[in-house]
């Protein structure tokens, strides 16, 4: 008999909406479409229970989780599946480093804390990580804030026998992985890269934050693409796109006898779906690592993150 | 001291133009741009000498090879490098299965016969293969005609200690490899393919032939893409494109919770460059296999062909 | 008090499905989205009644029109609006030039005969036109078959005081009009066209017919684009696209000091919607011209057809 | 016998390079490719003489104009035409509003002052306009700074019998005109716009300035596109593009029965060529208006500017 993973989540934004709705969708339809790993260390996609949730905005705190995920500015679409109340009431989250103890108490019974708030507040991210340490809960940092890249923090999780995963979620299928794959293909086939660019457009609140504070994200993208010939245009926040992301990629190269090769790509995805499709795996990795007493960084998580330990902060 | 590979070529079309001009280009500039393997089994890109050439059209037969490669309908551009006469006068090629002995005699001194004529005349391809067998020369079939896929023929090459490579050259960087790579990426990331298409447009004589006789090529493409959800639009022969090829690819998939993922790609390459970039490797594989007495199919060639032995004819 | 136009239709394919469903959609929702002319000579979009319908396939003849429009191979989507039975039972259509009298009798009470069968059977098209003449009904030919371009036929409609409209419907918003508009813009701005291509991909039965018998359609496209520098790639019949059409257009030009200008366009539309959006206007033009006794070619129709009278057959 | 127009230019950037080189190119080749109006009020493209030039950077001031146009950060390519010294030595330009008299004296003999400096310094633009007024010379403002939109200034030019043209050059063929044309086409055909975006990428110094100070340019673009449903992504300064500009446009609309219509466009141009192709007309309009004593705003110029008099500043 499988025991469901017990998950606490910080941030009730689009990514949480996609994750929560998707788990319910797969549970009720039995569909396997779009699933990376139907079983991961014995846990299915449907074997996830949310037990605690934290948010900050008035429209979410105090609401049932299944209601809060539709509060503005969330704009991930409502999936076509019935969604009964969850029984989890969204709690008030941290706004600074005080309150760690309160959070730790709320985490009782949870196995994994999924940190899915907006990037750009490393102090808050770290406060939740401290609460997880205190409560004996695994921590998954999906933001670009450096948590798993902080070696002293990683060491403390390791010593406590607690898994720590991060930083900066690589989408299940986003512009970085497509770009990287095509650049690697070029190289494998012996072509010489001349130039390349990537433009990302999106309409979520997370996107707006990144567009206004591009620095940490850009470094993280660079970690993922790894070539100075690849240029990133500024993020474009276009509200009408809602939770869709559109990326325009261009690659100019030279092949045999220096003749030109051009590739233009347009990619359209639902950003929160790409996050949920990876979070579902990270949660299961974290939960099963915790259960088997493996603290620190689980190697199998690294492929899903843009800035794992050892990359530039 | 390196001994240059001695190559005979059948077909003085665009692919031969790109190969001949490119070798001269790299020799005179020292550039390494667009080269897959600068050294392959000890042979550099510049270590290729053309010693015999066969063609059919009046405008090519009897001309110096370095002049014949610019005769219409060839339309690969003239590269920016001086090209002195080669000393090789283009000979009259076969139009049916008679004349094998004549060809075999002309092959004396050659190590590799590169069969680079238009696809669609398997009888002629086979006649040249017989001539290679007779002359003790390795054979490289770049066309979609089934030669290396013919097991009895492959066995005879093997027994004679002669390498046989084919069929249907995979371009160094063409629509098939890009398409295949992205489809594989989808699968690796757990997305579910919904539909996909590929449109190829080009302006070479070879393209015109394929557009008018699509069957054998289409099977070969299907061997390369390997999914029934991928649809090929008819080839478009657009003369103004000359030796450029443009491909439009589309991929529709579903990710987490069945949300949509779309990829649109436009690829622009010089088709003959893509062929030359692979031929340069196949020639070196064939020459060095011959020198070391390895007959039959050299395993390292398979990755460069769309329909290697064992795939459908 | 507006009297609804009474329409007979030949062909119960996707275009008829889009037209019939769309009129019902606008009637029931009151929406004005996507409507070119809410009122045309006093008739609204909702002021159309279908009174007779002809088809050939077993799956359609004998069925109610509102049921027949969903029979395969039709693949235009079912719109989100309730569709009660129409009361019009689909009749058996013509398969050769006999039966004109039978059709004429069935047309009693109709004002407009919309000929919306597949292109490629000019004899059948002409037979229906003769029936319209006999019955005193206006005729709208949406196919590429030359009917309105036949001056003797046009003259007979004119003399009978009956409107005749055709040939070859220009989509409300299709690849031809987008291509033409951009080519004209180039010219207006003083750029010099170097080359251009257009690829059309679709999944309807009509598309399959055109892909297999491209000649008449191609001439009609050429009439619409009017430049020999524009090349049409062969139509690609891709069943999975269903009633969607995708067009890839490319325009290469030269501007100031002969520097390069490139335009690449991808257009995605529902082909039957593009047809219905024009048919709704042609029907209203035909009905009101008939009511006011204007026979022959109504000038206001010409803009909506690719091959109006006076262009090449 | 035609008397050449005598032109002074402020700013020796890429646009001036394209204009100066292009005039020389057309003069020496006799080509008419890419020319909007071979003759305009009797003046040909070759009937332009540069008589004075102002710049600020050390690498340009004191150099012959035909040498200065290649000084970095200029990156418009060197055209394939011989370019003998011009005899015009680039002078030191204004850095604030002082020096108007010095400029006016230098303008003696000139008929038109083409103000082609970077946007974003309205005080400097105005100082040159004052110098033109003082010297009795027509003024053409190609920047987004409000000069022709300043009614009191326009009135003074009008009273002095001097033409004043501006503001913000519409490219001969740029993203604004393509976008606007397609949006108008949608409307003409009765489709309903749902959403639209535009991303512009470029590598010139001018582009860098605009990317860093987007406000005035954005208002000007909005004047040109005129719909709140059209969203502009931030400009992307990608140095490797040099003087090329790439724009990605998307248009989502609804047609008949609210079915979806999508248009994706990729446009690639040399930005300075697009400017030169319009400047050549504005100079000729200004020169001939001056010669015939028509002061103020010449109506025929308005179509070439994004923010003519009467639009928002």
UniProtKB/TrEMBL annotation, chains A, B, C, D:
<protein>
    <submittedName>
        <fullName>Inositol-3-phosphate synthase</fullName>
    </submittedName>
</protein>
<dbReference type="Pfam" id="PF01658">
    <property type="entry name" value="Inos-1-P_synth"/>
</dbReference>
<dbReference type="InterPro" id="IPR013021">
    <property type="entry name" value="Myo-inos-1-P_Synthase_GAPDH"/>
</dbReference>
<dbReference type="InterPro" id="IPR036291">
    <property type="entry name" value="NAD(P)-bd_dom_sf"/>
</dbReference>
<feature type="domain" description="Myo-inositol-1-phosphate synthase GAPDH-like">
    <location>
        <begin position="174"/>
        <end position="271"/>
    </location>
</feature>
<dbReference type="InterPro" id="IPR052199">
    <property type="entry name" value="MIPS"/>
</dbReference>
């Amino acid at each position: 008999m499988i025991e469901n993973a017990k998950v606490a989540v910080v941030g009730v934004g689009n990514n949480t909406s996609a994750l929560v709705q998707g788990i319910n969708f797969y549970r009720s339809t039995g569909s396997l479409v779009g699933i990376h790993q139907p079983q991961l260390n014995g846990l299915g996609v449907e074997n996830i229970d949310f037990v605690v949730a934290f948010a900050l905005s008035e429209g979410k705190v105090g609401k049932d989780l299944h209601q809060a995920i539709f509060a503005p500015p969330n704009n991930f679409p409502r999936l076509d599946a019935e969604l009964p109340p969850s029984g989890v009431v969204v709690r008030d989250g941290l706004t600074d480093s005080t309150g760690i103890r309160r959070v730790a108490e709320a985490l009782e019974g949870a196995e994994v804390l999924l940190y899915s708030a907006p990037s750009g507040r490393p102090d808050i991210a770290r406060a939740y990580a401290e609460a997880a340490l205190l409560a004996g809960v695994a921590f998954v940092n999906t933001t670009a804030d450096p948590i798993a890249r902080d070696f002293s923090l990683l060491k403390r999780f390791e010593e406590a026998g607690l898994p720590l995963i991060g930083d900066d979620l690589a989408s299940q299928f986003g512009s970085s992985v497509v770009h990287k794959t095509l650049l690697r293909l070029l190289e494998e086939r012996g072509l010489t890269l001349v130039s390349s660019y990537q433009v990302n457009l999106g309409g979520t609140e997370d996107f707006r934050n990144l567009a206004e504070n591009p620095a940490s994200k850009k470094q993280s993208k660079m970690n993922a693409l790894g070539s100075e010939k690849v240029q990133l245009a500024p993020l474009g926040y276009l509200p009408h796109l809602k939770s869709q992301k559109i990326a325009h990629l261009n690659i100019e190269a030279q092949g045999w006898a220096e003749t030109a090769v051009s590739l233009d790509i347009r990619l359209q995805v639902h950003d929160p779906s790409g996050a949920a499709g990876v979070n579902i795996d990270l949660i299961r990795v974290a939960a099963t690592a915790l259960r088997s007493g493996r603290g620190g960084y689980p190697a199998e998580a690294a492929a899903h993150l843009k800035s794992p330990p050892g990359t530039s902060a």
